[in-house]
Amino acid sequence: EGSDSEWLEDPAVLPPGADGVLSGVQRSGMQAHFYMEPQAVIAQPTGDGGIVVDASTQSPDSVQGAVSGVLKLLQNQVRVRVRSLGGGFGGKTTRTPYTAVPVALAAFKLNRPVRLAIDRNVDTAIIGKRHAFEGAYHVAYKDDGEIVAMTTDLAADGGNTIDCSFFVIHVAQLHADNCYLVPTFGVDGTVYKTNATSNISMRAFGVVQTILAQEDAIEQVGYRTGIAPETIRSRLLYRSGDSTHYGEQLEDCTIRENWDRLMRDADFERRAEAIAQFNAANRWKKRGIAMIPLKYGAQYEVPALNYGSALVSVFAGDGSVVVQCGGVENGQGLQTKIAQIAARALGVDVAGVTVTDADTSVTANATSTGADSGADLNGWATYIAARQLRTRLEQFAEAAGIDTSPWREQ
Fold it and tell me: What residues form DSSP beta bridges with 243?
């Protein structure tokens, strides 16, 4: 029996208090984004030496920067517009410049509009996927199912370029604990360069792969000890005041209360017993039930990227409102949320609010729409802008002797 630190270096050493050690490997393959609308772009010269690019992208700013760099133009000469996307899921972030730049170059050289819509076969071949992962875990446990130590080695297939692979493995390491406090815990991560198409951002960004390995380890401990995995999970759940393996102090952590409430509301124990009886009576047909917590971080881990932008305008003729923000409608209902936020802040009916294209000429330097941050960041920017506009309108109305009390009550 060795020390905790020795076990992290050599999982074959039994740590203090453990009755057994198990090891395993959980592999998850690549996954295509399979958005409804493939990569597509239209570029047309403006007549004054600039160019307008209508791209299916989650990151207009990246397309603008890439096009201006290749065409040797100032960024203010390149206008990128995005109305809405037919899906993205991360597949239209870092790779859209590779389709937009050739089209913009052709339009610029030919001085005429050029359009490209890649078919599904080509799109799937040239656009990266969710990173394939291998998670090798080692778990030390007691006979009653208590996990006393765990270490996981994560390996990700980055493909033939770096792209965002190091960010993916970093996020995977930050989420390797899921919702659990394991007394002795370690996680390593490595990105491998391969001859595959460069893998890229995808919904959940490394979280799915690492939690899959973690939960498989818990299932294996349950199988070894005869203890229900849900019982093992419930013992490990974080409490307020605990600290994660990367040093974050948890405050207002209600995961245990939520777990107990869901266990009651779902009538989990009765259903699990009924399923066990069914499986014992049926050789070929089986049923299953499981309950798993999930920690999922939102927004970018680079603080400088966590900002939103918005322009809110009111038309003098009829009081209707138009909002332009840095976020891209990706099928997640962003434009609806932005319209609702603007309507609430201004005290007007949402029917009188229109949200128009994302446009680099209006909201410059907008961060890419992803990391579950589009509505939060751009919605808050919309709210601030709308409240400032409302304050100015109220001051103007009061100076003109207009009664604003009905409006203030909204």
Answer: 249
CA dist 379 and 335 (Å) reads 10
Of 133, 225, 127, 141, nearest in space to 175 by CA = 133
Q: What is the percent of the chain where pLDDT is above 90? A: 83
Strand pairing report for 114-117 and 78-82: unpaired
Residues 6 or more apart in contact with residue 198 via CB below 8 angstroms? 95, 128, 158, 159, 160, 161, 162, 163, 165
Contact 345, 382 (CB under 8 A): yes
Whole-Å CA distances, 343 to 61, 71, 321, 325, 353? 27, 40, 9, 15, 7
- Going by pLDDT thresholds of 50, 70 and 90, the confidence category of residue 4 is low
353 strand-pairing partners: 321
Q: Please give the average per-residue pLDDT across 129-142, as a whole number.
A: 96
Report pLDDT digits (tens) over 238-252.
Answer: 999 999 999 999 999
Spatial distance between the Cα atoms of 233 and 252, rounded to a whole number of angstroms:
19
For the residues 291-297, what does the mean pLDDT come to?
92
Q: How far apart are CA 11 and CA 100, in angstroms?
A: 49
DSSP secondary structure of 182-202: -SEEEEEEEEEE-SSPPP---
- N-to-C CA span, the chain: 69
Sole residue written with tokens 């891209």? 328
Q: Are 105 and 142 in contact (CB under 8 A)?
A: no
Buried b (16+ CB within 10 A) or exposed e, 163-196: bbbebbbbbbbbbbbbbbbbebbbbebebeeeee
User: Dihedral of CA 248/254/260/266: which sign?
Assistant: negative
Number of separate helices (H) and strands (E) present in the chain:
12, 12
Q: Strand runs (DSSP E) across 131-201, as ranges? A: 133-141, 147-159, 184-193
SS3 61: helix
What integer pLDDT is reported at residue 369 of this predicted model? 86
